[in-house]
Design a protein that fits this description.
The complex is a heterodimer. By secondary structure, chain A is α/β, with parallel strands linked by helices. In chain A, α4 links the parallel β4 and β5. In chain A, α3 packs across α17. In chain B, the strands form 2 sheets. In chain B, strands 5, 6, 7, 8 and 9 form a 5-stranded antiparallel beta sheet that branches. In chain B, strands 2-3-1-4 form a 4-stranded antiparallel beta sheet, with helices on both faces. The chains are: A alpha/beta, B alpha+beta. At the A-B interface, loops of A face α1, α2, β4 and α5 of B. The complex binds thiamine diphosphate (TPP) and magnesium ion. Thiamine diphosphate binds next to α16, α18 and α20 of chain A.
Chain lengths: 571, 185
Amino acid sequence: MSKMKTGGQIVWESLLKEGVEVVFGLPGGAILPAYDDLMKYEYPIHHVLVTHEQGAAHMADGYARATGRTGVCIATSGPGATNLITGLATAYMDSSPIVAITGQVPTSLLGRDGFQEADVQGVSLPVTKHNYLITDIKDLADAIKEAFYIAGTGRPGPVLVDICKDVLQASIEFEYPETVHLPGYRPNLNAPSEDSIARAAVLLNEAKKPLIVSGQGVSIARAEKELRQLAEKANIPVATSLLGIGTFPATHPLAISWGGMHGEAYTNYAMQDCDVMFAIGARLDDRLTGAFDTFAPNAKIIHVDLDPAEMGKNITIHTPVIGDALLTLKMLLPQVQPNEHPAWLAQIADWKSESTDRDIIAQETDELVAPYIMRQLWHATDEGDATVVSDVGQHQMWEAQYFHHTKRRSLLTSGGLGTMGYGLPAAIGAQMGLPDEEIWVVAGDGGFQMTMIELSTVMQERLPIKIAIINNGFLGMVRQWQDVFYNKRHAGTPLFNPDFVKLAEAYGIAAKSVTRKEDVYDAIKEAQAHDGPYLLDFQVEEFTNVYPMVAPGKSNADMIRRPMPNMEGEE
Amino acid sequence: MSEIPMKRHTMIAWMEDKPGVLNRVAGLFRRRNFNIESLAVGHSETPGISRMTFVARGTDRDMRQIQTQLDKLINVVDIQDVTNEPVVMRELVLVKVQASNGNRSQVMQIVDIYRASIIDVDLDSMIVQIVGPEDRVESFVKLLSNFGIAEMVRTGRVAMVRGGKSEKQVQMETAVLGHSNGNQQ
Ligand SMILES: Cc1ncc(C[n+]2csc(CCOP(=O)(O)OP(=O)(O)O)c2C)c(N)n1
Ligand SMILES: [Mg+2]
């Protein structure tokens, strides 16, 4: 049999070689030859037709974060490809492995501003780990092979392959390459130096107030078990970054929640007061650290990261450890001595109990607020046996505060870019990758409307996704900033919302509004029992704000705290 | 807070000679707000690998960022900060200087002293060329400016470490040749 294949065939056969089972996309002229080959040759790859290409990129991202496998999205040239950009930037900031395949105008028309030409390689350059423009069919298979290799190894990230239409239509003898030749990319050299491990071990062994800060790198390296061994062996409390949620069970006695702008107060106190910080797989961005020069002022910081460029990028590091999180922990564990740290743990327990007293849930009110809903959701999912995909805003922070994640990769959220509209499409991707998982979208009324058009994709694929809209009638998080920094002038933040229940019904999705606290748990149970997708429109108190809050550019020590019960605000 | 000292650094980067590589490098400089004073690119001794010398200004942190961020570009094979190495640095400059019968000989004298050369002569101007380290080039140009400079072009600094091949270079070459990069899946 001839091994001659068209460019379109090469795309699908290469994807098959990479183990791809599902792709998210939407066709157009330039990519059409590839779509035609998909049907003509009946390749066993499931194509999920999206409503908007931004959704395709978020779906590939959600698929990747939920499964750990590289997600794939496809779009046509020009507007199709530019619609992917927000999703690529989101994935880039959060190190999520995606391969994006885009059609491009034929090589003969490149650079001539023909119909639907956009410089997609140029536009995507700063938001991809790498990208390709393929003008010759002999480069196609190599590029796809390299794209998957680059996306999924080292610090993962999105890679885009832009393919000219005539390349898709041309033919060549096809053989999928066995190896890649990338002299400038050596992700396999990722063991930390013995030296740096020894130095880290001494610091940890001598610490009086040690603290682990765990980030998503731990989950990418699948090092959750070893992280727990380290914490338990030396009795070191574990805080996480927002993306690190799920790397350490939130209900573990040594767990001290997540830190930063809306992190728990006791977590921030612990970060500020520790004498040795072991930050692993977290890039220490400004939302976690507060003002850089005020972060953890008493700590010798050990920073473990695969990416040498993260060392000292924002924060002055005492001991850099450049290496994979799993290898690092495995090398470190035998060198770390058992320890108790009773005084330090008691201090943290004190801070924690003060935080608990101020907890919004401890305050008696009949009003329906998101923290209560998130806690009920946690109970209803057998205390966290579900994957939650949150959108961006106040509800995102409340989800992270009140839903105690105990499973690895059980929170998917846009941390670095903070992309509203991420939630629903990312959940679709996650559910495609994990068909048996209970998946909840937690979205604000603002962000949900940015990508709610993907409800049609939910129905088309018959996905049993459950959606909780935290409907406060505002772009809440921005309104909160206006409340705090702009004298409560609510410019551009009140929302004019549709009837979300009717909207869901228009798509054929069961839905219900919830306005009273006492109905929350039952409504969640009803959604869970429903065979298929379900939307809950939680109409919550409008003006509730998220605490604690660290103002941008301020120290984590300067938190605006939630007022104590029965006290006027001390904001 | 005390002032963080800013320094000038000379770096050499080796990169795969592929379309768009320079765009990637330039894009990174811009996006990360790196302060680049000069940049010169051309072929290296290894086919398929081009070599870029650039001069950057900033704090030690900035320099580490420039190095590590550039190194992350897939097409950048290696990068070296040679500021504190024994290096030969050169720059080539062409100057079109105003020179008529009255002062031509003065210009020629300066050219002679600086071991520069005259490339082209016209009635009221001449093009002179100088190759040298920056300070010599600077003072030469400054002297010529007294006569009036009509046009000038500078290539930017190129640099090479003295002595045999560094260990890093050897490593890089093996990597390029694909002997030891081990990128197998
Ligand atoms: C695409 C995008 N545009 C704007 C913003 C700025 N922003 C951050 S949070 C927020 C409000 C989100 O409102 P909503 O989705 O209703 O969530 P809430 O904060 O009310 O829970 C906005 C506008 C953003 N993060 N992303
Ligand atoms: Mg809202």
